[in-house]
């Protein structure tokens, strides 16, 4: 008995060490890519805003940017429900070309605080003031500041360009008054003073086209570029009901906003520059062959953004727009993410070799009977059908509740054909306490390692749109609001995976995967329709369907974790506890 325990401990320890090694390799690799091999310094900043609000930001500074050799600066902001780390493709590629880059978390997202209730100013505003009105960043050329944002961030940078442009317009109007220093003539000093009120030289709007018109650009005194996905899921809201910019009234309005009326166009040539960058009237539109959530992850779309700033501001280091390394960082980050999640299983097994925690483990009794094939497949089809129909008809939180309840009912029916104890349902109170303590210790170890990785390398765990960031008080409190909903769906899934069936555990995995398989059908329908017609199938729920790109991978992995942890503990409850903690923090 002791030798068996020692063997399990040794094997689990080796697996934990392998996972730790992979986490470190991923962290070191992503750090090396992020810092350009040591030529870019990356540091976190907290920028004070109005009424005590604080904007969290990451500053990318190339080593060529010095007080003697000032560099242009680009401020980047993500869209709704995204954090600054999701814009690494923009931040890193700009920094590699010599731009100082400041990427900012929107208020109420990432590490930024809530904004004041009476204010709707975006977090990018204090960032603009910070870099343009202080001398802290003495290596920045304040005459060469650009801003860019994706999706809702694109709307925000357009708004900022208009607000700061209005200050310049107002100052120039005042300079024309008879009682001004130059009378009705604007002097050089008056013009320079007015231009200082508007530090934004160039603005690139990514993934936002809705309601753009001449009025929205009336006060913009900056070069403007727009990049829009040809297959943007929200394109049906545009005037032409698609994402094609060539004859889009919104894109035409953007181009004409920089041209005199005699040169106005009635269609747009994609990629063609209009106006003058020197006069800040340059306009250009790019139509990237991608979809909305993948726009910051599409090399050609990233290249469009780079090209715009190269044309209007000028990169200190000339480099082809196709020369991109951000995806390497994503892969290294992904290695850390996968290794950290996988480590939860051997870590649990290792903890179970400790005498006190071993009380959380039970041996499974043989299943005495199983449901018929008809009952099993009927349950699977019912679960898949309900998951698909309810997803496009109700909010995600309610979907989790409804499908959690259905899963519990199906699991109860299947368990009636076997023994609840055989599937690891029943636990004593001491076993329950030990199981909860085991989960808490495992998650503590998980987040301590993540905190160390972030502290040393300024990276986290992520793979494109999936991510786990270092734990913060704001993130913890947000996670607490999500856990109750998850903790109805997840136990149901764990019970389905463990339920007795005609082919034992394997069919349980099929039951656990019924929901994600049916949701995959929704994605296929949505995007087949979009690519063939230019308009999505589900319009009112297009954003919720788009969320499946990040939700589906989690739903596919969950049953696998439930099975592994069920086999490790002999009970169905540790998996849902751990997965609830992981998913809540992802959210």
Automatic annotation (TrEMBL):
Residues 32-164 form the PET hydrolase/cutinase-like domain. It holds the Pfam family PETase. The chain crosses the membrane at residues 331-352, 373-390, 396-415, 436-457, 477-497, 509-530, 542-561, 568-586. InterPro entries: AB_hydrolase_fold (IPR029058), FrsA_esterase (IPR050261), PET_hydrolase/cutinase-like (IPR041127). Residues 172-193 are annotated as: Disordered. Keywords: Hydrolase, Membrane, Transmembrane, Transmembrane helix. GO terms for molecular function: carboxylic ester hydrolase activity. This is PET hydrolase/cutinase-like domain-containing protein. Coiled coil: none annotated. Belongs to the AB hydrolase superfamily.
């Amino acid at each position: 008995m002791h030798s068996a325990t020692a063997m399990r401990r040794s094997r689990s320890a080796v697996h934990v060490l392998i996972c730790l090694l992979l986490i470190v390799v991923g962290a070191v690799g992503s750090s090396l890519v992020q810092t350009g091999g040591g030529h870019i310094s990356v540091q976190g900043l907290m920028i004070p805003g109005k009424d005590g609000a604080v904007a969290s930001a990451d500053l990318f500074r190339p080593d060529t940017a010095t007080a003697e050799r000032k560099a242009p600066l680009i401020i980047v902001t993500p869209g709704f429900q995204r954090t600054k780390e999701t814009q690494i493709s923009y931040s890193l590629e700009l920094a590699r070309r010599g731009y100082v880059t400041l990427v900012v978390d929107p208020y109420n997202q990432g590490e930024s605080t809530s904004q004041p209730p009476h204010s709707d100013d975006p977090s990018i505003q204090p960032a603009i003031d910070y870099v343009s009105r202080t001398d802290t960043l003495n290596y920045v050329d304040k005459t060469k500041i650009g801003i860019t944002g994706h999706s809702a961030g694109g709307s925000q940078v357009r708004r900022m360009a208009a607000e700061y442009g209005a200050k310049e317009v107002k100052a120039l109007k005042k300079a024309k008054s008879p009682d001004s220093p130059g009378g009705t003539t604007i002097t050089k000093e008056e013009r320079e003073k007015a231009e200082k009120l508007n530090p934004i030289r160039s603005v690139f709007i990514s993934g936002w086209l809705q309601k753009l018109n001449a009025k929205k650009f009336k006060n913009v005194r900056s070069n403007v570029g727009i990049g829009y996905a040809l297959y943007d899921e929200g394109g049906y809201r545009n005037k032409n009901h698609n994402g094609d910019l060539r004859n889009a009234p919104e894109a035409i309005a953007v181009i004409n906003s920089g041209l005199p009326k005699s040169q106005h166009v009635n269609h747009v040539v994609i990629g063609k520059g209009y106006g003058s960058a020197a006069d800040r009237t340059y306009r250009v539109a790019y139509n990237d062959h991608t979809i909305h959530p993948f726009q910051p992850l599409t090399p050609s779309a990233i290249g469009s953004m780079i090209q715009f700033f190269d044309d209007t501001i000028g990169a200190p280091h000339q480099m082809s727009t196709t020369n991109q390394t951000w995806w390497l960082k994503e892969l290294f980050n992904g290695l850390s993410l996968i290794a950290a999640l996988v480590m939860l299983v051997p870590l649990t097994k290792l903890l179970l070799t400790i005498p006190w925690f071993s009380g959380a483990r039970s041996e499974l009794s043989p299943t005495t009977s199983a449901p018929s094939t008809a009952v099993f497949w009927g349950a699977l089809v019912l679960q898949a059908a309900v998951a698909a129909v309810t997803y496009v008809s109700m909010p995600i939180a309610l979907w989790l509740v409804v499908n959690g309840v259905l899963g519990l009912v199906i699991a109860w029916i299947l368990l009636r054909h076997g023994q609840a104890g055989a599937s690891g349902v029943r636990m004593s109170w001491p076993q329950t306490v030990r199981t909860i303590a085991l989960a808490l210790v495992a998650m503590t170890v998980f987040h301590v390692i993540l905190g160390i990785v972030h502290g040393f390398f300024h990276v986290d765990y992520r793979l494109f749109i999936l991510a786990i960031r270092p734990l913060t008080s704001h993130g913890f409190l947000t996670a607490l609001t999500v856990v109750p909903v998850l903790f109805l769906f997840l136990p149901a899934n764990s019970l389905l995976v463990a339920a007795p069936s005609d082919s034992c555990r394997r069919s349980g995995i099929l039951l656990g995967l019924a929901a994600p398989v049916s949701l995959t059908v929704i994605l296929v329908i949505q995007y087949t329709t979009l690519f063939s017609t230019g308009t999505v199938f589900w319009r009112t729920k297009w954003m919720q369907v788009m969320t499946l790109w990040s939700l589906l991978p989690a739903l596919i992995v969950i049953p696998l974790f439930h099975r592994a942890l069920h086999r490790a503990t002999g009970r169905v409850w540790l998996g849902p506890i751990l997965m609830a903690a992981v998913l809540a923090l992802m959210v």
